[in-house]
Amino acid sequence: xxxxxxxxxxxxxxxxxxxxxxxxxxxxxxxxxxxxxxxxxxxxxxxxxxxxxxxxxxxxxxxxxxxxxxxxxxxxxxxxxxxxxxxxxxxxxxxxxxxxxxxxxxxxxxxxxxxxxxxxxxxxxxxxxxxxxxxxxxxxxxxxxxxxxxxxxxxxxxxxxxxxxxxxxxxxxxxxxxxxxxxxxxxx
Length: 188
Fold this sequence. Notes:
Blueprint lengths: L3 H7 L15 H36 L5 H13 L2 E2 H8 L3 H13 L3 E5 L7 E5 L1 H18 L8 H33 L1
Antiparallel strand pairs: 1-3, 2-3
């Protein structure tokens, strides 16, 4: 079986005008590809930078609290009360690990555990007022630790950061909404 390219390859000479596809411009293809690669690299850079910023701030605050605790409080703040299994899934830890963490956090008064009214075998976890206060305090500490690293930004750079943060929050809100809808469908 012969392909088109093998027939073309045997013929000598440049591609004729009748062989060109008017809808296919190689410079457009390159630009689209380069744009996609650049966008992928931009997303990767953003992720790496966000993780690095969090690590720098955590080190500079010298806070010994595990990151999993702050992540768990943030998830509960954003999603409301959740079963331990769903909380573990959203936090990307094992269910036994989340059970241990939630037990420690409940002992500190950061979360409250109750039995699920629909299934007495399941535990529902909810953030408490003191848990939200601790999270807000941690966020202020992170912000204060990172602020000196941004002192030299120009107004245009602040505008770019503000725009980026706004876009990210909008995208995360859409993802959360879609994830919640999927979780509700699975639960039915």
